[in-house]
Specification:
CATH topology: Spore Coat Polysaccharide Biosynthesis Protein SpsA, Chain A
Radius of gyration: 14 Å
Number of domains: 1
Helix content: 25-40%
Number of helices: 4
Shape: globular
């Protein structure tokens, strides 16, 4: 993820958002809202019910958000928030969404749609 942020920043983009490919509930309205919030906030993050996040946006790259994390655990979102709060930056938290980590998650999504 850090390399993706660096690559896009290198191309001259100011506000950068990365999304998970395992969250089919993300809509164009959520993405639009996230980019709009980055005009007022330093970070925007969309939490998932399992403790991770489906979206992370930032104006300036913060490599600390990607190191010393126990990925795919229920603490990723909270650990990321702690890193951001250490900087005393403004953060906007989007609505919480479900992501697809297990077959049961996929079945639930499929049955809703």
């Amino acid at each position: 993820m850090l390399n993706a942020f660096k690559l896009v920043k290198k191309k001259g983009y100011k506000n950068i958002i990365i999304i998970g490919n395992d969250c089919p509930y993300i809509t164009s309205l959520i993405l639009k809202n996230a980019f709009e919030k980055l005009n007022k906030y330093d970070y925007v993050i969309g939490p998932t019910y399992d403790g991770g996040y489906y979206l992370l946006g930032m104006k300036k790259i913060n490599k600390n958000l990607f190191i010393k994390k126990e990925w795919s655990t229920e603490s990723v979102f909270e650990d990321t928030l702690k890193n951001i709060k250490k900087e005393d930056k403004k953060i906007f938290i989007l609505e919480k969404l479900e992501d697809i980590d297990y077959y049961e998650n996929w079945t639930t999504f499929k049955n809703k749609n």
